[in-house]
Amino acid sequence: MSTFKPRTVASRILVVGLVALATSGCARAATAEVEFEQGPCRLVEPDVLEVRADVLERLGFRTVERAKVRARAEGFGALEFAADASYAVRVPVSAFVERVHVVVGERVEPGDPLLTVRSSEIARLRAEVRRLRAEAAAERDAVERFERLVTGGAASTRELVEARARLNALTAEIAGLREILSSVQAEMSGHDRLTIRASAGGQVLARNVEPGERIDPDDERGAVVIGDGEQLVVHASFPERYAPSLSRGASCWYSIPALGPTRFAGTLTQVSLAVDSETRTASALCRSDQPSTDLRARMVARVEVEIGDDGALLVPRDVVLLRRDRFVAFVRVGEDRVERRELELGARIGANIQILSGLSAGESVVEHGAVLLDGELDRLL
């Protein structure tokens, strides 16, 4: 009995030690598993993170709000003639230029001669009108004769009706040819010569023909270009982020670097609804009501346009992250969850950025710590 008790005690001590060791190992393993599960973030679903409470407290959040903003978009362009300020004079028939009556820079009034040309087509039309006039005169005499004969019973009514029909046809044909001649500014006098005249006043901007040249109605440039040098607009291009904010009727200003700091105030008269696929710019026309004799077409201009929105969504710039070719922000979507969401940006207004899509008013976005969340999400993905 005395030798059995010590062995029993030793066995008990050994068993207790093994149990303690095993328990200690399990505790460490359990602790390691808990620490792994309770990392700073846990991926819940694609682009959504569950953030540990103590980490969440260190993040800075900002509520997305609507605000009335007024800013200015900047673009560059060149002066060009307004759509109603210039026109190209084209010769209506194939012809040879006999004389040019104007020079570039000359002022012309409506009706002033610009060109004198010679055309066989004009000669043919005039000859045809003279021939038809002679036939119509003879037919008119025939109608008067048949009217007397019908009254006296010497001719039938049918012959009178036929004569009147032939006269009416000739009259209509003459009227059609005269209308053609009138449309090309050709009078009946003369043979093959035609004088082209100005239809509206202005300044001769270009003269594209010389005496002796042959010209055709389908010449794209026009024989002479006439315009009003005081009616100029700026065709400007703006970065595509401003495209949604550009609107017809908005105030605009432009300056010409070659002329110094003078600014011309105007209004946007036209805004393109498409963005250029190569330059990624939106175009608009700025027209000023301040004429100046110093301005010239094709001068380079710097343009500013007032843009604004009574209910624009604004967030600080720190909220927005650039990922390759897209912009994102982290939005709080639960008590301890944030979502990485793609954004469409508008204008940059001071320290803020306008949000066109991706966020709604009242949502909470991460302002401080978004970069760390972005890296953690990429690691977990």
Keywords:
conserved putative lor/sdh protein from methanococcus maripaludis s2 fold; Elongation Factor Tu (Ef-tu), domain 3; 5 helices; 4 domains; MdtA-like_C; elongated; single chain; OB fold (Dihydrolipoamide Acetyltransferase, E2P); 6-stranded antiparallel barrel; disordered N terminus; alpha+beta; 4-stranded antiparallel beta sheet; 381 residues
Shape: elongated
> What is the overall number of helices?
5
Could you state the order of secondary-structure elements as H and E?
HEEHEEEEEEHHEEEEEEEEEEEEEEH
Helix content: 25-40%
- Beta-strand content: 35-45%
Give the overall pLDDT as a whole number: 81
Measured distance between first and last alpha carbons: 68 Å
CATH fold-level assignment of the largest domain: conserved putative lor/sdh protein from methanococcus maripaludis s2 fold
Family: Belongs to the membrane fusion protein (MFP) (TC 8.A.1) family.
Keywords: Coiled coil, Signal, Transport
GO molecular function, one term: transmembrane transporter activity
Organism: Enhygromyxa salina
